[in-house]
Protein 1
Amino acid sequence: MKICRFNGNRIGLVQGDEVLDVTAALDVIPAQRYPLPHYDVMIENLAKVCARINEVKGSAARLKLSSIKLDAPVANPNKIINAPVNYKAHADEALTDKQLGAGAAGKQSMFIGDWGLFLKANSSLCGFGDEVKLRCPDRRNDHEIELAVIIGKTCERATLANAMDYVAAYSIGLDMTVRGQEDRSWRKSFNTYAVLGPWIVTKDEIPDPHNIDFSIHVNGELRQKSNTAKLVFNIPKLIEYATQCYTLYPGDIIFSGTPEGVGPVKPGDVMRVDIEKIAAWDVRIARDYVR
Ligand code: MN
């Protein structure tokens, strides 16, 4: 299933160029009491929600995808976890381009196992219906397209053998980045710098997430093109690695890393992102910098 969030508080089942408004399916989520869970309760109950969607979709209103505003498909992640240097060719370019984080930080190792993972602020999350609002006009702002993995249930100390059991869905992530010397959690956490969308695709629709073509064009120019087969740490390894540090919760998002070809964007640009089995979509950058 392809499930989106739209127009502020609606849930949609995506079918071709249409969306069925299946918000009624949320009635299977148990009522919550204070203190509310610090993770996403729709993703926690995703199997039940999907079953209920099948019951309500027959009477759902149909809308054109082009007529709605797409929100981030996960409303309340506990964490946005990010993998650094997780494609070999991107690690190589990070050694030669001193504006990229590794060179700027003077790091020697280009192996993800020496770097750990890092977090983007949850407040940086936005959907494909939002415009990316660039900061720092005197600095380089880069696109990084990444396969995003959505965690489905609480997970501590995953193993390579059981890690995939904790995956609920996939999505497209844009890890927008200001280049410079500061910690990544600062340069990658401005509002709208974690773009997720256009929807989640449930795990059953992507039986092999390690052979997925993806690309990004900026204003029609190809910038990045790769395949998830080239991940240095694949998805089970990323989950096992993440749980050496964090407990994962339903709705946690793992940005799995970006391949070579990262490059600058500027106000008014259009980023055409395309990940096989998920979507091809235009993500827009606002016409002015945030001052
Ligand atoms: Mn990244």
Protein 2
Amino acid sequence: MLAIQQLPVLNDNYIYLIHDPESGDTAVVDPAVADPVLKALKQNNWSLKYILNTHHHADHVGGNLFLKEHTACKIVGYAADQKRIPGIDIKLSEGDTLTLGAHRIQVISCAGHTTGHIAFYIADTEALFCGDTLFSLGCGRLFEGTAQQMQQSLKKFAALPLNTKIYCAHEYTAANAQFAYSVEPNNPALLKMIERIKKLRSDHQSTVPSTLAQELASNQFLRTDIIEIKQTLAMQNAPELAIFTELRERKNRF
Ligand code: ZN
Ligand code: FE
């Protein structure tokens, strides 16, 4: 069983350490900064084998070069975006896999937030590291990609097993919940999520990870086929992409 440790850094970023006790292998996902990672590695007596980068933004790759200098790690990123991933060593594409001990880590390409965004999926651990693509009750902003690309990326995630834990890269859940509530005030699953979020945040705890089942039931960006949402938007007959686009634009203005 892989151990997953969440490190809150900067304003609202999460870095994840993934450790396989059998082989001793350890990976870090999206090290925005290096120091907290080095500290955690030392505390656990773990040595770093891989940096896994979901995309090129500074709050995901900021610690790459310092960590590479101070550990024996290799940096893993998306082949098509290799020019923007500092220190990249291992270049992967959709469907490629990497192993951490006996555990397979699968690359899922998920353009939208950036054109070269990827996620890391570990089936045997029911874990998805999805960077800035899917957030709890939200999704990433479209900085480089299109709404269509983002919706296709989210649909790939939606097809994973329901128990999959969604390890996203930011604690945006409370703000996302306010927008979600404005769209679906009568969704019981969402109301339940909001209660959970309030409790966790008042205890200064992380709301991440949620599960895919929770997101499918309460995250509108995965619910563009739901009739109540279409009605709220007064877009009863619109295709799913138009619904998604409208939701993303409303969230930008919210
Ligand atoms: Zn980003
Ligand atoms: Fe980010």
Protein 3
Amino acid sequence: MSTVRFLTGITTSGTPHLGNYVGSIRPAVRHSKAPGVESFYFLADYHALIKIDDPARIQRSTLEIAASWLAAGLDPAHVTFYRQSDVPEIPELCWFLTCVTGKGVLNRAHAYKASVDKNTAANLDPDADVTAGLFMYPVLMGADILMFNAHKVPVGRDQIQHIEMARDMAASFNHLYGEHFVPPQAEIEESVATLPGLDGRKMSKSYDNTIPLFSSREQLKKLIAGIKTDSRAPGEAKDTEGSALFQIYQAFASAEETQALRQAYANGIAWGEAKDLLLERIDREVAPMRAAYEDYMAHPEKVEALLLAGAAKARAIATPFMARLRGAVGLRPLNAGLQTPNANAAKAGKVALPTFKQYRDKDGQFYFKLAAADGTVLLQSRAFASGKEAGQTIASLQRDGRDAALALQALGALTDVLEPLDAADLAAAAEALAMLAEHVASN
Ligand code: TRP
């Protein structure tokens, strides 16, 4: 069975809350134990630098998030759990991808556009307070994903555009330098509802309405007491619809427990009593993890060691892969197989490859074309009785295309099966063949 590679990053910019637990940590930990799955989880601390300029907060958040994932049952022996900044190949790949990403594509990224729109609305310079880091956010994320050739990337809906951009980066790079990257796919957990916060809006740090995952029981009790309810008195039936308390309960409870609370709402349970039920239910799940969390927080050196071991595992993949990518783009030792630069590639700055296309026409006969990357037809064959003959002719052209002179000879020898070409066409076709051959040889 072939394994599917899952990868996701967690920005180290805050303290994990119940919404993170229900929406990301818990499903990821469960998922990482499924057969046929290889998972990569990492602390996106380079990404955190885009939003946060408080070094103490970055460090603390990194520890809190790592401790939370470990306490929640992530097994670092089974998954690859690492810190982004421990893998220097990631920023290196980020640069390679920067060089194949259109600036216009990044102009359209939601997060950047939102800042520009806000500035424009406020009559400010469109780029006021926008760092190049924010602008480049999607490229760094592309490097995170493509570095490990992840197939699936579990993310929230707000991140789908970034995954699509990573796909485009993979395609552009592959087109220029050969097949190195797998196009990743966003994996959206439809079944995981977003958790409401204390005020009923989505639980989010930016609304300041969160319940930290590892609050003490007393803190948890205090925070739960602050969940917004309506003013219905004990004995009055209550609505489950729109009740943040009910939705949070549901995220932790079994179907039967949820049904029992639904009934209690109908029977007019007092809000205070419902809050006690919620406290007990959450604490039942969190308490066993709390001890482990507190132990990790008290022993950061344990977390540090686990992350360094994770980085070594990650780099066992990243280092050789990066070496291959360096070679592919031409960052090569000078004593290793010096090649003749391709005239076209030098002109364009990029290698856009011609392609052979074989097809069967309406007349039932077989043909092929050689087309430049821009679609211009450079060679058109005459009819062949079989696909095999057409294929053999393509193969011989590919074989003889190693340099332009050989390619010209080959084309000359094949006048009977090619449409007549004038000298200029012939030269262009020969050059295309040589370019194709060189590309194949270097990959
Ligand atoms: N941008 C993601 C978020 O804010 C975090 C992240 C960084 C990420 N790199 C990633 C997620 C790579 C998935 C894959 O949620």
Protein 4
Amino acid sequence: MLAARATNALLKSKAGLSSLRFASTAAEKDKYKIVVVGAGAGGLTVANQIYDRFKAAGKPLNEGDIVVVDGADYHYYQPGWTLVSSGLMRKEETRKNVSDLIPQHLAHIKDNVKSFQPEANSITTTSGRKIAYDSLVVSAGLQINWNGIQGLSKALADSSSGVSSIYSYDTCDKVWRDIEALRSGNAIFTQPTGVIKCGGAPQKIMWMAWDRFQKTGRGDQIKVDFYTGTPSMFAVKKYSDALNKMRIERGVGGFFQHNLTKVDSENRKATFKNAADNSDVTVDYTFLHVTPPMGAMDFIKGSPIADEAGYVAVDAGTLQSTKFSNVWSLGDASSAPTSKTAAAITSEAPVLTENLFSFMDTGKVSSAKYDGYTSCPLLTGYGELLLAEFKYGAEPKETFAGYPFIGDQSKPNRLFYHFKKDLFPWAYWNGMIKGRWFGPSGFIRPKY
Ligand code: UQ1
């Protein structure tokens, strides 16, 4: 009782102190040197790298010169959701409090952005606060349009529907439960037409489910089919060919240019629009894994910093806004024509950091250019993974090409499986979002 009271008093005084710190910050200034919008993978990574870059140049920023603006309670390790869905990780391990991930030297405003006023070098938050900046970095992600498919939200909310998705914290564990519960019938995996986060993920979970069905003696009773709005298995020919060969060998049906439009969970029927002849195709499912359509964030779409599609318009190499020279963007929110992955952020962040630093220091960007590097660690089963790595132009850019014992990266192997399952989650939490992990070059910051 006494102990509880003492703890409460301590908690209260702690809360009082921290709100004092924030209150004084707010009253003194609502102007920051650098405003970073978004406390996701891109925002945290780049905010820390920028702080470190100024310090390394002997021009350290003061505590609180950089502010991260994000109203979210939680930060998610989204690449972990395929692992959760495969029974390899607990979903709680993919989530941490945003406030615990922002170091002392970065300020944090727990509020969301409502609008941008780049002519006035300011943003306005949903609570009406105006925040001014010298430089703005936008890394706010993209949004998932769950309502873009008729009947989907209802189906996902029903625990016995057999419909699930790896694309949210709330539904990723349902995928695993449904895979384990399925005894026979049709298991259908979908991918929409258009841009999504991690283009390979919709088939990763399919391969994992397929392998699980084989290993637990259910393979003969379950038919697996892939219905995708895309024209092929993958955007890069080398990997697409390898994956299509695997699909045929494994007896998985491939239905291309089929875009899911409707889920009738009462009758377990899924309807697709076939782009080849514009027909509607309705199929029966027992298990349905849905990849929802995605698009630009509403608050960026139509804003002065956005392109026509609603992404932040940047130069694909420098990551500087093509409209306002003190605005920058990386990650899913940016218009850079790369695939939207954490791996892309490992290469974008140091380039953006170098150019932003150089621009603030000298008025000119540096010679650093993002080459479009991105990766898709494509799980093909338990203990095997195909590590697709490529750059702009859908051209392979393989870290391990020429390494002995590894050989061709289009052939799945066990080492890469452990990268995805063990190394990347560790490197993400302990290195990347602290600004200290640079993807293929590990802990060594690339030089430009
Ligand atoms: C990577 O660094 C990373 O972040 C921690 C990922 O995130 C989930 C990746 O998928 C990939 C591919 C990398 C790149 C690292 C190497 C060693 C190729």
